[in-house]
Write a structure and sequence with these properties.
Blueprint lengths: L23 E5 L22 E9 L11 H8 L6 E6 L6 E6 L4 E4 L14 H16 L7 H11 L1
Antiparallel strand pairs: 1-2, 2-4, 2-5, 3-4
Length: about 160
């Protein structure tokens, strides 16, 4: 939307951000759809518009179009040293490229069909378990000692 088209309401401030299309992992698909009677047309739509919770990926490799991430930091992220970062090779490119998932940038994303593009990639049950443990690590600073994430992290930190 052109910034001139943004309404200016008393007591509000407008912020304009640049954004680009990037891969995300869906952490939560949001709650159930609300019945129509609880979504009257006279109330603000933001109160009831369905959203999902996503965490964005950022390409970590340096090339002509991106600065990349500091190599020493990527090495430490690969060893699961920090709860806010997860290193991964996404299958979206051929060959797959290194990416960093930023759990500390969890954000709502509207469920309007134009807001996102679904891919054929889905986490397996073990992957979902690791992701859930990772979020617990970030939000509670706890990691179950019998979890796959704990065992993976312990092995990587030995190297």
């Amino acid at each position: 939307m052109p910034t001139a088209g943004i309404h200016n309401f008393p007591g509000e401030r407008s912020f304009v951000y640049r954004a680009k299309k990037r891969p995300v992992i869906v952490v939560s698909t949001g709650g159930p759809q609300l019945p129509k009677g609880l979504r009257p047309g006279t109330k603000p739509k933001w109160q009831t518009n369905p959203t999902m919770l996503v965490a964005p990926y950022y390409g970590s490799e340096e090339n002509d179009s991106r600065a990349g991430w500091y190599g020493a930091l990527v090495d430490r992220i690969q060893k699961c040293e920090y709860p806010q970062y997860m290193w991964e090779k996404l299958p979206l490119n051929d060959p797959p490229r290194e990416s960093i998932l930023k759990f500390d940038q969890l954000q709502p994303l509207g469920k309007h069909y134009k807001a996102y593009e679904i891919t054929d990639y889905v986490l397996c049950d073990d992957g979902i378990e690791v992701m859930n443990d990772w979020i617990m690590w970030l939000t509670r600073n706890q990691m179950p000692s019998d979890s796959n994430l704990y065992m993976i992290r312990e092995e990587l930190l030995k190297e």
